[in-house]
């Protein structure tokens, strides 16, 4: 999934990953579901509501753990490698 998710085909083979972790936080998932329900009620199309995935690159495991525990909000972090 990581290799095939690159937006630029030239980048697909340039990265090697030692470990990837899928994080599912029930609190954040319930917020996402509520957000999606509100958007659907407001008339957004299924295409606009379709989920997509992004991958964050961290320099330190501690940074990843912190985001997994507290979430990542717009303008709340200096993380910029997506």
Describe the structure.
With 82 residues, the protein is an all-alpha fold. It has a domain at 24-70. It has three helices and no strands. The protein has helices at 26-41, 46-49, 61-70. The protein is globular, with a radius of gyration of 15 Å.
Helix content: 25-40%
Class based on secondary structure composition and strand pairing = mainly alpha
Give the number of DSSP strands.
0
Strand content: under 5%
Quaternary structure classification? single chain
Largest sheet: none
Number of helices: 3
Low-confidence stretches: none
What is the ordering of alpha helices and beta strands? HHH
Q: What gyration radius follows from the Cα positions, in whole Å?
A: 15 Å
Q: If you average the pLDDT, what whole number results? A: 78
Distance between the termini: 15 Å
The coarse silhouette is globular
What are the key terms here?
single chain; 82 residues; mainly alpha; 37% helix
Per-chain topology:
Layout: H1 26-41, H2 46-49, H3 61-70
Write a brief structural summary:
With 82 residues, this protein is an all-alpha fold.
